[in-house]
């Protein structure tokens, strides 16, 4: 894992170095490194139901954030690592890493662009395995042969794109996304025949091209769109190609309402043991914008996998924001892993989050994601969010439902319904407190298991100086499941010091 991320980061910085060669590409750089030292205690190191072991451990968490802003370049890189050292359990010492890098470079003004991306993070392997919101305690107990239900994901790629305007008549855009996703080898994947090494991994070759109307049309719009998403599964042998051609149209009835639609053909190929799926497809919908702060779009139609519907809603006021969306589409695990965002760079109100790598020192595992699979599946995702901010307080609550329906047997393989919330309160200029909460119920049809997961963590932070901050937190996790191996309760305490250089 270390070799891959070093090569990606080196290549990313190499492209950035090229941009400093000419005055036109002068870039303003900002680098913010940090180091966090923490001491923790958990009363259930291996997350077991009986005979739980407590343990003290020390964590060293270096991190940095890099920003580059120029007339033709935008760079954002965030990295955080967490090495845990156990005195009495040296065999489970481990290092967890998270990296998210995004580069956008304009090579030929207004025409040719190059984007690069990369990420590295732990991910759940199976929804039927043990679930934990704390990646520090999802361990593999080698002595008792307890499986670790996490995988180290590394994803990186480049996205060249070209655009051309034909006066006011039409606009042409064409591009590609060529990347690679690896998921490591986990004990769960090796022992369960449903999975294999590098489950959910793949090399992707995506191509897209579109020709759309220019600004000469006031009310009507038209377009022709081609998309090909090819995934090569390598060791797993599960290759897939999702391909479509659509004509799209729209008409602005008035300032608030627009009707839209698209008609085309899909030509999809899944694994070698599945039939080709192709045929006509269509969608109709509309966009309703009653005010600059409120927008609602919705669509219904028929795609290759069946009837589909989607919507997207947003409303933003001075102190309040409400969002919601629902999507249905054919996806693969490698596609979802490439799209996963690790570090929030804007808040719920769209404001930039201050650069502070120390805030990511305590690495947690995203439980609002489903297990990895080598199958092409129908993804149905519903997410809603409510945010509210005052002078000293911020509230954020999200509710979601995630579903994966496998195309090999058309049954619901896995779904999760949950909510997570966060509250922060600024007591004084130096001191703040907060609370994070997670709840989820998860069902996996293939194993006939249902798991309920709870996580609560209050914390207190104090700024000791211009560069030093401290945090004291407590967390409680509880899981109940039809599978007794996935039942546990854990209490843990963490105290940390962060120095931002």
Outline the structure in words.
With 501 residues, the protein is mainly beta. Helix content is 6%, strand content 59%. The chain has helices at residues 2-19, 187-191, 333-339, and strands at 28-42, 55-69, 73-86, 94-108, 112-124, 150-166, 170-182, 202-213, 220-232, 240-252, 257-268, 277-291, 294-303, 306-316, 320-331, 377-389, 393-406, 412-426, 431-444, 449-463, 468-481, 488-500. It has a 22-stranded antiparallel β-barrel. The chain is globular and about 70 Å long.
Can you lay out the helices and strands and say which pair or pack?
Blueprint: H1 2-19, E1 28-42, E2 55-69, E3 73-86, E4 94-108, E5 112-124, E6 150-166, E7 170-182, H2 187-191, E8 202-213, E9 220-232, E10 240-252, E11 257-268, E12 277-291, E13 294-303, E14 306-316, E15 320-331, H3 333-339, E16 377-389, E17 393-406, E18 412-426, E19 431-444, E20 449-463, E21 468-481, E22 488-500
Antiparallel strand pairs: 1-2, 1-22, 2-3, 3-4, 4-5, 5-6, 6-7, 7-8, 8-9, 9-10, 10-11, 11-12, 12-13, 13-14, 14-15, 15-16, 16-17, 17-18, 18-19, 19-20, 20-21, 21-22
Beta-strand proportion: over 45%
By DSSP, the count of extended strands is 22
Helix count from the secondary structure assignment: 3
Low-confidence runs: 1-6, 18-24, 187-196
- Average pLDDT for all residues: 85
Gyration radius over CA: 24 Å
Looking at how many chains there are and whether they match, the oligomeric state comes to single chain
Helix- and strand-based class? Answer: mainly beta
């Amino acid at each position: 894992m270390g070799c891959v991320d070093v090569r990606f980061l080196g290549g990313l910085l190499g492209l950035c170095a090229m941009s400093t060669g000419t005055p036109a590409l002068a870039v303003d750089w900002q680098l913010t490194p940090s180091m966090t030292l923490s001491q923790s205690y958990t009363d259930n190191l291996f997350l077991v139901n009986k005979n739980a072991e407590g343990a003290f451990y020390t964590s060293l968490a270096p991190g940095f954030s890099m920003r580059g802003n120029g007339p033709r370049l935008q760079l954002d890189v965030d990295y955080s690592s967490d090495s845990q050292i156990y005195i009495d359990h040296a065999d489970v010492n481990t290092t967890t890493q998270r990296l998210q890098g995004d580069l956008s470079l304009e090579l030929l003004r207004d025409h040719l662009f190059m984007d690069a991306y990369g990420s590295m993070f732990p991910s759940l392997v199976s929804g039927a395995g043990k679930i934990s919101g704390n990646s520090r305690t999802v361990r593999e107990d080698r002595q008792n042969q307890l499986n670790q239900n996490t995988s180290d994901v590394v994803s990186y790629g480049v996205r060249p794109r070209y655009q051309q305007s034909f006066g006011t008549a039409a606009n042409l855009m064409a591009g590609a996304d060529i990347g690679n996703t690896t998921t490591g080898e986990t004990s769960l994947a090796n022992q369960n025949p449903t999975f294999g090494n590098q489950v959910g991994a793949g090399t992707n070759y995506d191509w897209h091209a579109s020709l759309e109307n220019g600004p000469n049309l006031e009310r009507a719009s038209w377009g022709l769109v081609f998309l090909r998403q090819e995934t090569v599964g390598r060791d797993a042998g599960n290759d897939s190609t999702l391909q479509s051609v659509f004509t799209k149209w729209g008409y602005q009835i008035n300032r608030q309402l627009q009707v839209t639609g698209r008609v085309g053909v899909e030509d999809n190929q899944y694994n070698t043991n599945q039939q080709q799926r192709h045929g006509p497809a269509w969608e109709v919908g509309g966009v309703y914008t009653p005010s600059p702060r409120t927008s609602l779009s919705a669509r219904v139609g028929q795609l290759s996998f069946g009837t589909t519907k989607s919507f997207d809603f947003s409303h933003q006021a001075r102190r309040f924001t409400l969002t919601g969306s629902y999507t249905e589409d054919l996806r693969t695990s490698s596609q979802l892993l490439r799209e996963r965002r690790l570090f929030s760079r804007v808040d719920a109100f769209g404001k930039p989050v201050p650069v502070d790598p120390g805030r990511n020192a305590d690495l947690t595992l995203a439980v609002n994601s489903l297990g990895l699979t080598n199958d092409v599946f129908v993804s149905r995702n519903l997410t809603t969010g409510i945010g509210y901010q005052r002078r000293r307080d911020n509230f954020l609550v999200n509710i979601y439902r995630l579903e994966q329906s496998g195309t090999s047997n058309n049954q619901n393989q896995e779904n999760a319904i949950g909510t997570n919330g966060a509250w922060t309160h600024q007591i004084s200029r130096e001191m703040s407190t907060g609370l994070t909460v997670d709840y989820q119920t998860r069902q996996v049809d293939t194993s006939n298991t249902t798991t309920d997961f709870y996580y609560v963590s209050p914390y207190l932070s104090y700024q000791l100086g211009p560069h030093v901050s401290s945090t004291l937190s407590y967390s409680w996790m509880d899981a109940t499941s039809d599978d007794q191996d996935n039942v546990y309760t854990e209490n843990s305490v963490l105290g940390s010091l962060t120095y931002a250089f």
